Amino acid sequence: MRSLKYISIVLVLAFTLPLHAQEMTMLTQIKKGIKSKRVSSYDQSGDNHDNLQNIKTGEKRTIFDVKGAGIINHIWITMAPEPRFLSRNDVIIRMYWDGNNYPSVESPIGPFFGQGWQESYLFTSAPLLATPSDGNGMVSYFAMPFAKGARIEIENQSGKDIKAFYFYVDYAEMKKLPENTGRFHAWYNKQLTGSVDSIENEHWMFGSNKPNKTGKDNYVIADIKGKGHFVGVNYYVNSPTPYWYGEGDDMIFIDGNDTPALNGTGTEDYFNTSWGAPKTPYSTPYFGYAKVNNNIGFLGKTHIYRFNIADPVYFDNSFRFTIEHGSNNVLTLDLASVAYWYQDKASPVPQIPDADARKPMPAIGPGDIHRWRNEWRKSKGNDPKLWGN
Questions:
Q1: What domain range includes position 160?
Q2: What is the pLDDT of residues 15-41, one digit of tens each?
Q3: Predicted model pTM
Q4: For the chain, how many structural domains are there in total?
Q5: Which residue ranges have biased composition labelled Basic and acidic residues (predicted)?
């Protein structure tokens, strides 16, 4: 049991070694009392119809339901129609551990795997990926332990039928989990934020802002009760303005403190970048910009991620991760996120926003900005030589 205990703790709890060191430890350690198992959508008749078919809108399907103890270590999913015809923002994935009737994971399937809004694009990180072609393959390498069974459920809220749903769920079966093995959790949130003063006063363009020390109006990425450690976030920003959205500070409250235990200096700083967003996407195992807008300035949709694999954030009683929307919460932004963490026991996550609340805000383009400029010209007397300042 010593070998089993060591392996599981490295895989599930530690997250303190560099990734390559973890991989080498797992590859070289001889495992005892563990068997590799898989549940997949393969055609059990021996034919090649290897998918679940015709999942009706409003229907739920269980894709994984096993008893006993084990650790899920790999998930792969793809589905048809492709994303431009079927929104993965409206297909929900839920995971239930240890026979509980409440999910410890609940998220739209696209955002969970790093595909924001109703879009598809390549995404590469250590624990989560969206693979060629065009992000259609969704992959997880997060370790997901269970002691008394596990169940994964899909719900179709898209208004269209899922014609084909393919999946692998690979797991290590074992007689018993080691003590203190954490349970995987994930939660999706979305909010259309607004300025606390009804003025989008970024960079103090219209005077000073009200100081923010309590995080009262911050966007909430995670709000957790219990003991565990936080291991990352996919963060989706949809900005209606070409102005820079990233001056909002991360403010993380641990164990019920009224002031942040961890206080950041700006959105891009938390995500390990600097001086604004990059012009093109880039990926590292732990952080990156999977999608950047190719519009005007910072107008449009940006997907940023950071996984705290080498630097988990620990808490004993509670954990509240918030971030400002603009400096001192002055910007209107369409924000969404999926947070990932481990707790000492499987706990329920808050209910996620419904399908109507998850809809992305309409795109704003150059034509809209030109119309606004025309209204400004009219308000200034329609001088044909008005420049703009």
A1: 34-174
A2: 334 555 666 666 788 888 999 999 999
A3: 0.92
A4: 2
A5: 368-383
